[in-house]
Design brief:
By secondary structure, the chain is an alpha/beta fold. The chain has 4 domains: about 180 residues; about 110 residues, PAS domain (Beta-Lactamase, 2-Layer Sandwich); about 130 residues, Alpha-Beta Plaits; about 260 residues, TIM Barrel (Alpha-Beta Barrel), CATH 3.20.20. Helices cover about 55% and strands about 15% of the residues. The strands form 4 sheets. The chain has an 8-stranded mixed barrel, surrounded by 5 helices. Strands 2-1-5-4-3 form a 5-stranded antiparallel β-sheet, sandwiched between helices. It starts with a helix and ends in a 9-residue tail after the last helix. The structure holds ligand C2E and calcium ion (2 copies). One calcium ion binds next to strand 17.
């Protein structure tokens, strides 16, 4: 602050340079005129003082940074004080010497003028204000009062004293105002300094633009980010020029021109805007431009590479199966759409594993995941050119460049062979098979969904034909699936409407030769269309959650029919595991029996071997309850599937129906007959009631009898018949069992 005050002295140089010598010469003239030696001395003193003042003022006129401002200030102060003392002395000695009035008046005027002038440079220099009064005003005032005749002397003297005091007070208030101004200016400078420091030390890169988007300030982070040097403050570039020349910005950035055009437009509209800039080292910078209310802009640049990478990683993550690391369904659909868009020829294959469910059931899901991962790896590496993804569950989808069907089918074979290899996981050796549905682009579909559906249908057909693991999509598959869809809806409506009939097939006790039970078999009541096989009906009912409805319809009719027969006839009905696992199933069955008055011990449920084996745990509690209530539970089709004997032993059942497939042709084949006998002795050793089903000939009947089978059932005795023909069926079955066989044609 003081430095500025001192520099200000330069402005007074010319006035001092003129006024000083003039005042000094006048003072010397006055001293000579009154011939006063003291006056002459004080004139010399004043002249010397002026010299000091003038040289001090001159020293700060050139903007020489070397100038010692403190010394200049001291010289100026000293000069001013000397001048004041000199002038005071002159006037006092002139007045005291009875000199001519003209000289006295001149001296007083010069002194007072100088006093006034010194006052001008006084602000900021309280010492001058203090010295002025005792050095100039006081001697003149006292001299006037003493030497001039009253009342003039007293008046003039008092006037001079008052003027002197006024000057002091003016100088002081001027000083205060000046100080305030300087303090304010200093505070402003400090504020700017703080702001500057803040901007400089911010880790965010900041540039400040004026209204014409010239870069007026830029911090070191911004310079480092863009790779630019400090700006020339005299000739700042515009922001667009700065970016255009920034070495770190990607020269190949295609969007640079577009961005700048866009930015110019927004600048003209004074709208804030954001942009992403790409640097040469692949970093990404987010740029934010914000207009400032008074005009101009603040731009903030931030290295957002981390965020961009995280977003990219997230994008990759949601396209990847977390278990296998393969692309997932979403990624697959994107890839499929892209290839379709390109119009390339390729094959889409859906690979579905066989026996994966059993792996999960037997070893748990963690092992299932390991198996799926291994399979995924094998598929991906089966052929270098293919795109493999996991669609979920045990299903994979593969895309392979291919324009001929033979090549695609050969590749499908390679995939199956790659999957169908034993794999070791600790102690377990696991092998799963696979089926593949193949669809060709563009022949089998122009859009992704269609192509996927075509491959799905092909897969369905591959799985529907045991032994053939590969199927190529053909248009008739579509017709077939349309027909299936039709059948499905007809079965559904038949079940809902209760349009299901029941056929009855007798079971003959070989010991007594009498029919002791009837098996109820569901029959599709034709509604004009093609009849549907019971097994297919059951499959659809299971898939659509209508299996309970089917059981209810059959049990309702059959229980009423059997309860209405003379004599204690038993009823055997088929139950699905989908039904047996439902919690309320047993109570429903009991309620239905009660309606017709059939005691529980006259009912038996048949459950197929494969279903019971895979869903044993889910059904166990219902089965145990049924047995406790006296309801029989039989394993149906024993020998057609592949039971674990250990599990069979632990199942809470009381009857075994040996599959007709074991008996069929067995009498003529020693090994087949042996197998049948083994199955029978297995049942004996478990103390189960044994039923041989599918008995079609006298030889088969005899084989069953010899193997110790308790009951027989089959076309040789009676085919399933409608309720109205039950008496005839019973008679025919008993006759056949007792007196040589009377083969009836299957109806
Ligand atoms: P299943 O329980 O093994 O029923 C025996 C099947 O063999 C019946 O076929 C029957 O007509 C047939 N059959 C009877 N004697 C002979 C024979 O000597 N030789 C041959 N080759 N076949 C014979 P159907 O009625 O077509 O039933 C097929 C399957 O559908 C049944 O097999 C059973 O699993 C299922 N099913 C039938 N009705 C129902 C039902 O009401 N509920 C449930 N859950 N399943 C049912
Ligand atoms: Ca059955
Ligand atoms: Ca059966």
């Amino acid at each position: 602050m003081q430095a500025e005050l001192t520099r200000d002295l330069g402005n007074y140089f010319w006035s001092f340079a003129f006024a000083g010598p003039v005042a000094a010469v006048l003072a010397i003239a006055a001293a000579l005129a009154v011939k006063s030696l003291p006056a002459l001395f004080f004139s010399g003193l004043a002249l010397a003082g002026f010299a000091f003042v003038i040289f001090a003022c001159h020293a700060v006129r050139t903007p020489d940074p070397e100038v010692d401002l403190e010394e200049v200030e001291a010289r100026y102060l000293l000069g001013t004080i000397i001048v004041a003392v000199g002038l005071g002395g002159i006037v006092a000695s002139v007045l005291g010497q009875n000199s001519p009035f003209f000289a006295q008046a001149l001296a007083v005027m010069v002194a007072l003028a100088t006093l006034g002038a010194a006052n001008g440079a006084g602000p900021g220099r309280p010492l001058i204000a203090l010295v002025q009064f005792p050095a100039i005003s006081l001697p003149i005032g006292i001299a006037l009062i003493r030497f001039w005749p009253a009342p003039w002397g007293v008046g003039a003297g008092a006037g001079v004293l008052v003027f002197g005091l006024l000057c002091v007070s003016m100088a002081r208030s001027g000083y205060a105002a000046h100080t305030e101004l300087l303090l304010a200016r200093e505070a402003q400078a400090a504020e700017r300094q703080r702001l500057d420091t803040a901007v400089q030390t911010l880790s965010q890169a900041i540039t400040i633009l004026d209204a014409a988007t010239r870069v007026v300030a830029m911090n070191s982070s911004a310079m480092a980010l863009l790779g630019v040097k400090p700006l020339d403050p005299a000739n700042p570039p515009t922001f667009a020029e700065l970016l255009a020349d920034a070495p770190n910005l990607q020269t190949a950035a295609t969007n640079r021109a577009e961005f700048l055009g866009h930015a110019t437009m927004l600048v003209n509209l004074r709208q804030p805007f954001n942009a992403a800039l790409h640097l040469n080292d692949n970093r990404v910078v987010d740029l934010e431009c914000q207009p400032v209310p008074g005009g101009g802009w603040v731009t903030v640049m931030r290295d957002s590479t981390g965020e961009h990478n995280a977003i990219a990683e997230l994008n990759r993550e949601i396209r990847r199966c977390p278990v296998t690391g393969l692309p997932n369904r979403r990624a697959f659909m994107e890839e499929l759409d892209q290839r379709l868009l390109k119009g390339s020829n390729f094959a889409l294959m859906i690979v579905d594993l066989d026996g994966f469910k059993q792996v999960n059931d037997r070893y748990g899901h963690a092992m299932g995941d390991r198996v799926i991962t291994r399979v995924g790896f094998r598929l991906r590496t089966a052929d270098p050119g293919l795109f493999a993804s996991r669609m979920g569950g045990d299903e994979f989808a593969i895309l392979a460049e291919s324009d001929d069907v033979e090549g695609a089918l050969a590749l499908a074979r390679v995939l199956i062979d790659a999957v169908d290899q034993p794999a070791r996981f600790g102690d377990a050796e696991i092998q799963v098979g696979a089926a593949v549905g193949v669809a060709m682009s563009p022949d089998n579909g122009q859009i992704g969904e269609d192509l996927l559906r075509a491959a799905d249908l092909a897969l369905l057909s591959a799985k529907g034909h045991p032994g053939s693991h590969i199927c190529l999509f053909t248009p008739d598959l579509k017709l077939l699936s349309a027909r299936n869809a039709g059948v499905e809806s007809r079965v559904r409506s038949a079940l809902r409407a209760g349009n299901i009939d029941v056929a009855y097939q007798p079971l003959v006790d070989l010991e007594t030769g009498t029919v002791v039970a009837l098996e109820a078999l569901a029959r599709w009541l034709p509604d004009g269309g093609e009849p549907v096989a019971p097994a297919e009906m059951v499959r659809i009912a299971e898939a659509r959650g209508l299996i309970g409805t089917l059981r209810r319809l059959v049990l309702e009719q059959a229980a009423a029919v059997v309860a209405g027969l003379p004599g204690p006839m038993n009823l055997w009905i088929n139950a699905s595991v989908h039904d047996l696992r439902l919690p309320g199933m047993v109570d429903e069955v009991l309620a239905e029996l009660q309606v017709v008055g059939l005691p529980p011990h006259r009912l038996a449920l048949e459950v197929t071997e494969t279903a019971l084996m895979t869903d044993e745990d889910a059904c166990r509690s219902n089965i145990e309850r049924l047995i406790k209530l006296g309801v029989g539970v039989a394993m149906d089709d024993f020998g057609a599937g592949f039971s674990s004997l250990d599990r069979l032993r632990r199942l809470p059942i009381n009857a075994l129906k040996i599959s007709g497939s074991l008996l069929s042709g067995a009498p003529g084949q020693a090994m087949a007959a042996d197998i049948f006998r083994v199955a029978a002795s297995l049942g004996h050793s478990m103390d189960l009631m044994l039923v041989a089903e599918g008995v079609e000939s006298r030889e088969e009947l005899e084989l069953a009898r010899a193997a110790g089978i308790h009951r027989v059932q089959g076309f040789a005795l009676s085919p399933p018949v409608p309720a109205s023909q039950i008496p005839e069926a019973i008679a025919s079955a008993e006759a056949a069992a007792n007196t040589g066989l009377q083969l009836r044609a299957a109806s």
